[in-house]
Amino acid sequence: MMAFAQIALEKKQATLAELKDVKEQLATKGWFPGTSGDLSARVGEYTPDEFYFAITSSGKDKAMHTPEDFLFIDAAGEACETTSLKPGRESLIHAKIYRMTGCSAIFHVHTVFNNLISEFYGDQGFIPVQGNELLKELGIWEENAAIEIPVLPNYVDIPSIAKLVPGAIHSDIPGFVLRNHGIYAWGNSIWEAKRHLEAFEFIFELEYRRLALL
């Protein structure tokens, strides 16, 4: 497999530029309260045991742009280059999703609606959705389609969450939610991951407002 140092600089820079654009757009929506959330995108070739990805550095205000917004890490969560930056603790979950899916980008955000809905359905272990138009944005085109978006417990111990990730991966549902915490959504490109994330968030808000009318 190609070592990180052999990946073209232009490819790394293009990945960071796209992540910066997405970070700005999602920050405008208020989806990174405080310094929360993570964005990542894979670069170079992929095998389940060896891959590299750019990820937001820990403790940064994502509404701002600085030269230290991202760093590159490997499948073990270790920095690929000499840097003083550190990835967030949840980089281990990103790595597990990449390993299980081979996807190209993963976005993790905290919103009021994904917190409320995941808490409401937390004991059930999934968020039921049926007949929602935005399911088409997830690639689900069946009429009156029904899916179950997985909800995982939000353990303080990140490795304990990572162990549960394989059971939350479904080929037709590009995301799962940590209970009362936030969503992980992914895609085969940075922009597909963004589309999936926005579709999930629309679904969560609509479900909340539907329940409020009952």
TrEMBL record:
What is the gene name?
A: mtnB
Cofactor (UniProt): Zn(2+)
Enzyme category, top tier: lyase
Q: Where does Zn(2+) bind?
A: 108, 110
Q: What EC number(s) are associated with this protein in UniProt?
A: 4.2.1.109
| Species assigned in the record | Paenibacillus motobuensis
Reaction catalyzed:
5-(methylsulfanyl)-D-ribulose 1-phosphate = 5-methylsulfanyl-2,3-dioxopentyl phosphate + H2O
**What metabolic or biological pathway is this protein involved in?**
Amino-acid biosynthesis; L-methionine biosynthesis via salvage pathway; L-methionine from S-methyl-5-thio-alpha-D-ribose 1-phosphate: step 2/6
- Where in the numbering of this chain does the Class II aldolase/adducin N-terminal domain appear? 17-208
Q: Which Gene3D superfamilies match?
A: Class II aldolase/adducin N-terminal domain
- Primary role: Catalyzes the dehydration of methylthioribulose-1-phosphate (MTRu-1-P) into 2,3-diketo-5-methylthiopentyl-1-phosphate (DK-MTP-1-P).
Per UniProt, the cofactor note for this protein states: Binds 1 zinc ion per subunit.
Q: What is this protein called?
A: Methylthioribulose-1-phosphate dehydratase
Q: Which residues form a coiled coil?
A: 2-29
Family under the similarity heading:
Belongs to the aldolase class II family. MtnB subfamily.
Q: Which UniProt keywords apply?
A: Amino-acid biosynthesis, Coiled coil, Lyase, Metal-binding, Methionine biosynthesis, Zinc
